[in-house]
Design a protein that fits this description.
Spore Coat Polysaccharide Biosynthesis Protein SpsA, Chain A, globular, 11 helices, two-stranded antiparallel ribbon, nine-stranded mixed β-sheet, about 300 residues, binds 1-O-phosphono-alpha-D-glucopyranose, alpha/beta
Length: about 300
């Protein structure tokens, strides 16, 4: 029986330049969809998939992330005194047990592969998950949980995958498909950000991975790839070339690209509409805004 996936890496070292000036002082991962930071969605998804150890790869200026997952004795005391038990419950999901969470600095921005490699000593010789908090996935069964279930049936490397339009393929890691089995596809290659017109398929990698320790060995080579960065995609494909399987997994759910402003706004609206306390007012407001916009055209 293969080992269970109990550790997840959250690469959060990026500078978030697409959200300047906000990200000048607020880490992008702390930006909120409705009232929860992006990173909270990632943590909740990891927990649902059975993850027990959470490893953040950070950089300078990400102190607010560490504070977010820390206890807040003064705030909790005030809420207790005021009898605000509901808010105390909400805060519980942000608290981590001692030793459950670790922070590792990526000292230089050398790429996603390098960020994952920075956590190698905390992973050791077992399969692990990687979650990119920018990719927020709304799903009945959380995406990583779907992938862990697929991994238990098909041990190997598994990357979340989704069809993208031709003109968007060069923004993603793209799979070269060997066998298409429906939810799962086996691969014979993977290309990071292919030049326009050269993508081997339309099946793009989305930010959820279950990987074997062989990928960390591949990252040891520090091979530089697309954009002059050490790419996770290349290391995963390197593991395939040693004889391991690399599967793409078509998850069930809707992915929001919260690394872009448009995606972030869409996620905000969708998550607010999913909330009982916000839906009705927001829907009326949106209809009115759309009508006014139509009339103005
Ligand atoms: C990263 C990965 C890419 C993947 C994408 C998904 O790219 O390198 O393979 O398709 O995430 O969001 P980034 O968006 O960080 O440039």
């Amino acid at each position: 029986m293969h080992r269970k996936v109990t550790k997840a890496i959250f690469p959060v070292a990026g500078m978030g330049t697409r959200f300047l000036p906000a990200t000048k002082s607020v880490p992008k991962e702390i930006m909120t969809l409705v009232d929860r930071p992006l990173v909270q969605y990632a943590i909740d998804e990891a927990r649902a998939a059975g993850i027990k150890e959470f490893i953040f790869v950070t950089s300078r200026g990400k102190g607010a992330l560490e504070d977010y997952f820390d206890n807040a004795p003064q705030l909790e005391q005030t809420l207790r005194e005021k009898g605000k038990t509901e808010l105390l419950d909400i805060l519980k999901s942000t608290n981590m047990d001692s030793g459950e969470i670790a922070y590792m600095r990526q000292h230089k921005p050398l790429g996603l592969g390098h960020a994952v490699w920075c956590a190698r000593r905390l992973i050791g010789n077992e399969p692990f998950a990687v979650i990119l908090p920018d990719d927020v996935i709304a799903a009945e069964t959380p995406c990583l949980q779907q992938m862990v279930e697929a991994f238990n049936e098909n041990p190997g490397n598994i990357v979340a995958a989704m069809e993208v339009p031709d003109d968007k393929a060069s923004s993603y890691g793209i799979l070269d498909i060997k066998d298409d089995m429906g939810d799962l596809v086996s691969t014979k290659g993977m290309v990071e950000k292919p030049a326009p017109g050269t993508a081997p398929s339309n099946l793009a990698v989305i930010g959820r991975y279950i990987l074997t320790p062989t990928v960390l060995e591949m990252l040891n080579k520090k091979q530089v790839g697309a954009g002059g960065e050490i790419q996770l995609t290349d290391a995963i494909d390197g593991a395939r070339s040693t004889g391991e399987e690399v599967y793409g997994f078509r998850f069930k759910g809707h992915r929001y690209d919260c690394g872009s402003k448009a995606g972030f706004l869409q996620a905000t609206v969708a998550f607010a509409l999913a909330r009982d306390d916000l839906r009705d007012d927001l829907r009326d407001f949106l209809y009115a805004v759309v009508e006014a916009d139509k009339a103005a055209r």
